[in-house]
Task: structure prediction
Amino acid sequence: MRREIRLMPHIVWCLLSTVLLGTMVANTSAQEGNKKFLKKPLVIEDQGSFFIGGVPKVTNFATLPPANNPAGTPNQITIGQMYVQFQIPANKKQKIPVIMVHGSTHTAACLESTPDGREGWAPYFVRQGISTYIVDQAGRGRSGFDESVLNEAAMLIRSGDVQKGTALIPNPGRITDNGAWTAWFGHLMPVGSTILTGTLIRHGDPGDPPTDDATHKDDYLPAFPFAAVDSQIAARAGAIAAKPTGPANYYALDYYKQLVPNAEVTLPGSTCATCTPTNVSPAETWTPMDLALLVEKLGGAIVATHSQSGIMGHHMVRILKERGHLDLVKGLITIEGSCALPQSGLKAEDFDNIPYMALKGDYTASSAVCQTTVDAINARRAEGKGIAKAEYIKLDELGNPIFNGTTHMMMLGPNNLEIADVILNWVGQNVPPKAKNGKNKK
Result:
């Protein structure tokens, strides 16, 4: 009897261990089934993050002053810095790193993975043997913003100087959920309605207006993961205020969670004597400077911008030119963004040795400015004054059905890696630039 009693704890423990092990295996299997963002294991040599740039600011409004001390207390904060995240592949196939910059209302999250849980551009570039750096624009996301201007405005209003206080309040605009929809994916119908009275439809859905910018001869829908929906948001769980009309799932895309305010408006702007206009916005002041510092830190890089950051890439080139480091720009890629040279104080000759690519998807009109810039750079090459090639690639004109319906947020669509291959192929053919004799620039 005693022998049986002694064995009982051992038997119970064995049974408990079996149950726990089974649970762990089941949980591990579930995790394994959910984690496959990457196409396959990614072998890296190094990864990490750091901040670059920024300046000190002494202010009495780092926090909102208490009522008994309305003048506040001097403190120092750092503003204008930029968050950088990177991965270095173990097997480098390209010596020159790539820096990727997101657009308005986004952060680097849009470059890491897709809303439906697939591999994003950043890890894919690393998989192709390219050291890849992604950033949060200065004043945005993990880069932080300058809260002191808001506190100073609040203090002025609280003290009775409403006019001066409200004048200090910046407008941190953002792209709304339905604003992103109508900008890139479809329409709010009927025309003139609001989300409380109208219905969201996709390009190509019944009711698509004749004025649609997308070509109506096409019988395909936008290439975007519309099935990646948060069921809780679709059910309006915990929702605030009224319920929009129309398909609930179109208001519940996981993609919308990436959208954040453009808080860079809290940073000061600058002036540029060679730019048109000479007044430079905060967005075009700090991120370009930080990008220039990052390019210098890396000893040279290819910079790929998207949408709002297109002009930032050009200002970065100007800053590096002013600092005598134009040669460190190994390539500039502008994805559905501004290609304006005069606005950033540049000329076509500045790209004599810098390969330049503009890229557009399917549901946006061709940019006359991008075409003008590309033509001007190539004209110098034709005259023997430059060796770098410029190209304006229009995915909707390549004739490959994989690109049908490519949206403005092309790094997140189901064809995102095929588009990445277009960029990678261009880099492979043009960086470093080749002279007419076919030899690379040394």
Q: What stands out?
A: The chain has ten helices and twelve strands. Residues 86-142+260-442 form a domain with the Rossmann fold fold (CATH 3.40.50.1820). The longest helix spans residues 2-34.
